[in-house]
Design a protein that fits this description.
The complex is a heterodimer of chains A (117) and B (110). Chain A has no helices and eleven strands. Chain A is mainly β. In chain A, strand 7 and strand 8 form a beta hairpin. Classes of the chains: A mainly beta (117), B mainly beta (110).
Chain lengths: 117, 110
């Protein structure tokens, strides 16, 4: 079965850090670009970050650049998102998604990150 | 900064046809933006409907179609059904490794 499973979300204080993981199965992960997308409660979807298939190229949205880092381990079929210097406005469900034709193809179920004191 | 625009809300009668659009605050959408469309119901992950302007994702019924209409990307739903009542998002590839979501359209089927 083709799937993505996120983990690592939780409650963290402002200024804190968290690492999200997304485990892939059922498709050739090592050839796939990957993305992270987030959705604040009651709000729309926002693209967060992208990584190419071998991890040599990464990109970020304006609101997270310099604070978040995307990476991947193709041996473990896993993509990561390191979240540093967290703010209340980073509170959201974080989805990972695979890329197909410059679009998002397979989606995970999401993991909730809450930034609050 | 260029913003991706969508209608905030739309309504359609069961069995009817509706076209949602996806534009830019500055400029025109073309196939070079690789427009894609997603459906999301409350509490669920998004579902991919259309990518590369007009290619349906696996398992998506052919009553969903994508196109370029004038200076915007468009998603047309023909023969709307009750379970099409959802939020719809478009995404454009802005170039240089940057993607942009529209604000979403809340479609009501009634």
């Amino acid at each position: 079965e083709v799937q993505l499973v996120e983990s690592g979300g939780g409650l963290v204080q402002p200024g804190g850090s968290l690492r999200l993981s997304c485990a892939a199965s059922g498709f050739t992960f090592s050839r796939s670009w990957m993305h992270w997308v987030r959705q604040a409660p009651g709000k729309g979807l926002v693209w967060v970050s992208h990584i190419n298939s071998d991890g040599s190229s990464t990109n970020y949205g304006d609101s997270v650049r310099g604070r978040f880092t995307i990476s991947r381990d193709n041996a473990k079929n896993t993509v990561y998102l390191q979240l540093n210097s967290l703010r209340a406005e980073d509170t959201a469900v974080y989805y990972c998604a695979s890329d197909k034709g410059y679009a998002f193809d397979i989606w995970g179920q999401g993991t909730m990150v809450t930034v609050s004191s | 900064q260029t913003v991706v625009t969508q209608e905030p809300s739309f309504s359609v009668s069961p069995g009817g046809t509706v076209t949602l659009t996806c534009g830019l605050s500055s400029g025109s959408v073309s196939t070079s933006y690789y427009p894609s469309w997603y459906q999301q119901t409350p509490g669920q992950a998004p579902r991919t409907l259309i990518y590369s302007t007009n290619t349906r994702s696996s398992g998506v019924p052919d009553r969903f179609s994508g196109s370029i209409l004038g200076n915007k990307a468009a998603l047309t739903i023909t023969g709307a059904q009750a379970d099409d009542d959802s939020d719809y998002y478009c995404v454009l590839y802005m170039g240089s490794g940057i993607w942009g979501f529209g604000g979403g359209t809340k479609l009501t089927v009634l």
